[in-house]
Specification:
245 residues; mainly alpha; Arc Repressor Mutant, subunit A; 2 domains; 3-stranded antiparallel beta sheet
């Protein structure tokens, strides 16, 4: 595309420092370096990343808006924990939203979609064979994000990618990983078969059932990690921050 005289020479805007801090914290959560209920101390973050407290505060405000962190008076800011009640709600939302994606995908199935899904599954198989949880996590997300994109619905993709992705990674790293990697791979083999071969009229409901079963498989690992599963007590527990020290 030709560059008009009015825009020629205009530089692309640089990412602000606060957005860099926000991305750093997000990636630390995705990589399992920051855990649910771990406290985030502004001074520690600013010192570790060599930025101002104001930039850290701006980043935390956006992360709180997106539901990744929680700030409470006189207690501070910490990575959002997932209570038993929220755990079930997340799986329910994921099932309904991804079910919609699959329905739209099947209604306008394009020839390049199945090869992309098969490639993501191949990467998961390779990671499972080498017992590489890190590669498995990212191949897992690649498969599901391919489904979200294949829906052709940008709003659905943005909602799942922005709102659900942090919780998906938290659950995968802290609770789902308690299951053998081979079993997690076989689950995805069945999932791919479901979304590609179920009848178009039933596929949306089948996806919801898949996530309902996955929730029931994973839920006991959440309870065992909490000790006391009471929601009200859980929401007032925290873990001292170590990552930024």
């Amino acid at each position: 595309m030709a560059i008009s005289k009015s825009t020629k020479g205009v530089r692309a805007p640089r990412t602000s420092v606060s957005h860099q801090v926000e991305d750093h914290i997000r990636q630390a959560v995705y990589k399992g370096l920051l855990h649910p209920r771990e406290r985030i101390i502004e001074d520690d973050v600013a010192r570790r990343l060599r930025v101002s407290r104001g930039s850290v505060r701006e980043a935390l405000l956006r992360l709180e808006r997106d539901g990744l962190v929680v700030t409470t008076p006189r207690r501070g800011t910490y990575i959002r924990g997932i209570s038993p009640h929220e755990f079930k709600a997340i799986f329910g939302m994921r099932g309904k939203l991804e079910g919609l994606c699959v329905r739209y995908m099947r209604e306008a199935m394009k020839p390049e979609i199945q090869p992309a899904l098969n490639e993501a599954l191949r990467k998961m198989k390779s990671a499972a064979s080498s017992l590489d949880d890190e590669k498995f996590f990212y191949a897992d997300m690649e498969l599901h994000q391919a489904v979200w994109k294949a829906s052709g619905q940008p709003q659905l993709f943005r909602t799942l990618n922005l709102v659900m992705t942090p919780f998906i990674f938290m659950i995968a790293r802290n609770y789902s990983a308690a299951q053998p990697i081979s079993a997690r791979y076989e689950d995805h083999v069945r999932y791919l078969d479901t979304i590609l071969n179920s009848s178009p009229g039933r596929v949306e409901r089948e996806v919801e059932r898949y996530f309902d079963r996955l929730c029931k498989q994973t839920f006991p690992h959440l309870l065992s990690s909490l000790g006391n599963p009471d929601d009200e007590l859980f929401l007032h527990q925290d873990i001292s921050g170590q990552y930024f020290r």
